[in-house]
Amino acid sequence: MEENRILVIDDDRELCELLAEYLGQEGFVVESVNEGSTGLERALSGAHALVVLDVMLPEMNGFDVLRKIRERSKVPVLMLTARGNDVDRIVGLEMGADDYLPKPFNPRELVARIRAVKRRAGSSASPSESPDLPECLRVGDVELSPETRVVRRAGEVVELTSVEFSLLEELLRSAGKVVAREELSQVALGRKLSPYDRSVDVHMSSLRRKLGHQIGTMERIKNIRGVGYMYIRTSDRDI
Amino acid sequence: MRSLFFRIFVSFLGATVLIGILLLALALTTDPHRIVFAPHEERLARIGKELVDAYRTGGSAALQEIDRRRERKEEPPAILFRNSEGPLSGQQAPPLVHQLAAKTVVTGERQAQRGPHGLPLLAMPLGDGYVLVAGVPPPSPLERFFDPYGLTLRLGAAFLVTGLISYLLARSLSAPVRMLRDATQKLASGDLSARVGPSLGNRRDETAELGRDFDRMAERIGDLLASQRRLLRDISHELRSPLARLNVALGLALRKPGEDAQGPLDRMEREAERLNDLIGELLTLAQLESDARGIERIPVDLHILVREIVEDAEFEAKDANRGVRVVQGEPVVVAGVYELLRRAIENVVRNGVRFTAKGSTVEVRLTRSDGICGPTAQISVRDHGPGVPEESLDKLFEPFYRVTDARDRRSGGTGIGLAITQRAVKLHGGTVRASNTPGGGMDVVLELPC
Question: How high is the ipTM of this complex?
Fold first, then answer.
């Protein structure tokens, strides 16, 4: 098995080609399969470090493929689900998928998740990751591991999207200081902030909701009008 | 019966014929000239005793005296015989009266007969050879009314027949109409499976035809709605494939060097995201419209939910120099689908934030009231924006409805938010309405049954 071989099972040939090119630039070697049965065969061959599996496949659907894979193999599987379909997500995760990504996705997010899943699966660090990252960011009751991309609050895992994760990571690194919206947009969304672009605020809002609005009586994430956001640094007695 | 026309025609004709037959039968079986003795017996006995006593004490003169008195009071004549002699008053009597008296003496039984001019005469033996022959006073109006052989019986029979046939006819006419109405109401309230066919049975008339037409119509409406939803869902799904490719292609393009392209590419990425949000909303809408039944409801504390939504919105609104505040909040719990309720309320609050004037605050009120239809929760969201023209208020909840160009896409939103709100609220059996408030701004009120 090669470290960077990825199997993509998706009936959209053109998307497979584009993914092969994109992931290729990230240092992965991509093999694409367009139907479920062949995909299953290839996934069980043991030649890949990770499988990207689309739920909506003709004939044998993604869940069937996943179930068959799990009967024989522990290869990490990242499922592509229809957006907003929680049932797909839950079923996929219960059946043993390692992660899911709603389609259409931002390719940056796909790469981040592929890396996280691989790391969690115990593979060695991917080549582009710098080795001097801190083990864990811990502020107040929140813990964030950049390595495994897992966030815990008071010991419980909080499920975040990749954008939310990046936003939180950035805020935690500068906890107690204001981070400009421009910077957050650049880091989390990979683009410059433009007028009327509310994306950062929308993501920030849902991040806040997932983490809880407040720590004790303090607002967890503060919106500094016209500037950006600040994660409150709490001393131990506040918690 | 085949047709309504035939049924109505036959019913009326049948009723008329039946009444005719009945009246004829009554006329043949009852004798309107029959004289009944019984009701007069007591009176005759009294008169007889008076006459006999008078005769014994005063003879013919006394009887004549009584005759004159009766004449003055316009009472029918009463004539006393003894054996075949008489009248004992010494006056003249028609031969018919003589015959009647003789017959009574011979038989010793009471007799009744029509006298001259149709006047009913009664003869009664009084014992000791005395016989009384007396006229019957004309019946009072009340007596005439209750006379079993009079007009009342005939009218009663006519009423009975007409009533019975009318009842049967009315019932057979209204029953299918009522069924049709029930089905129409069910259809109108969203039950597209409502049909009248099975309850019509073997009917073949015009209403049954109407019922079958209704079924065909309902079938067609159901098909159209289903195909519309399917189309919406398919389009949304199909749009996502090219969008997924577009995203990856954009990712590739962003990697290529070239500062000049960066701005437009960022823009493209944002638009792709917006497109994706829109598709997501469309799918939600399609789902809301198709999965109307069979959703699991849990108790949702609206007070907490509204506060959370407002806090989120406030968090974002602050940056645009606007505010959102819960100005009134009562603890209310409704049974519902948490995620749907959250979206329903959030969409209205965000809509308020979007259109409220800079520096103003959107006011959110949560109240509980006991209406005639049971307790309800009311969530009112009032903004201080430009308001909406009156004629557009109802259309606000239609998908993609935009009031004017002033509320354009630049202010964000997919144009489906309020439509989702309306569908979600309706799914919970509630209502949503918008109104302009005096002094500018709009007030949107969601009402949910508790």
Answer: 0.72
